[in-house]
Design a protein that fits this description.
Length: 218
């Protein structure tokens, strides 16, 4: 069972999520929180597999709550956002979230995303990720990080990181580079370990922040 903690200051929103997730045989909603502080405390107490986190909430917002949960390693966090709150989603990713979804995401996609995050993967929507990073990193909204942080990677690992940042799955990367999927998984693991990153989402952010990939790259 995938144990989920729902965090949203709107009761109707939590009710909707509970109805969708409660209909799944492999998902168990074990608790609800209406603000970030309560979420941090409940995550520490209940130890869910995934926290479905809103970003704009009273007492403590979802970004700070995500940071505290990630630092304590009590659960994986999947944040919910809307197009007019992009800066919050990017901040959540930088602070340890394993992905983000839009609040109008179809129920089937929400369920798939939760399962992916629970299994240790990250939810990266290429179109939304590029939009976010293009706005805050590539269009004058933020300074690039020192790219020498990538010097620890081999040439092949840099190639793989570029393709991760462009939203390709392991299967797609394997096909493009004529490698086995197992080999790609090994490369991904080494990239995350060498760069001290939590998951693929943070790898995408770093690739854009260092200028390895830029918004609009094919």
């Amino acid at each position: 069972m995938i144990r989920v903690l729902l965090v949203d200051d709107q009761e109707l929103m939590r009710m909707g999520f509970r109805m969708v997730l409660g209909a799944q045989e492999d998902i168990d909603v074990i608790g609800e929180a209406a603000d970030g502080l309560d979420a941090v405390q409940m995550a520490d107490k209940l130890r869910p597999d995934v926290v479905l986190m809103d970003v704009r909430m009273p007492v403590m917002d979802g970004v700070e709550a995500t940071k505290r949960i990630a630092e304590a390693d009590t659960a994986k966090v999947l944040v919910m956002t809307t197009f007019d709150m992009d800066e919050y989603a990017l901040s959540a990713l930088r602070n340890g979230a394993s992905g983000f979804l839009l609040k109008d995401t179809p129920p089937s996609d929400l369920v798939s995303a939760l399962r992916a995050v629970a299994s240790g993967d990250a939810v990266v929507s290429p179109s939304v990720t590029k939009r976010l990073l293009g706005r805050f990193l590539g269009d004058g909204g933020g300074e690039l990080r020192d790219a020498t942080v990538l010097d620890v990677l081999t040439e092949r690992e840099r190639e793989v990181l570029v393709l991760i940042a462009k939203g390709l799955s392991n299967t797609e990367i394997a096909r493009k580079l004529f490698l086995s999927e197992a080999t790609v998984k090994t490369h991904v693991g080494r990239i995350l370990a060498k760069l001290e990153l939590r998951d693929r989402v943070q790898a995408v952010v770093l690739a854009y922040e260092t200028g390895l990939v830029r918004p609009g790259d094919a």
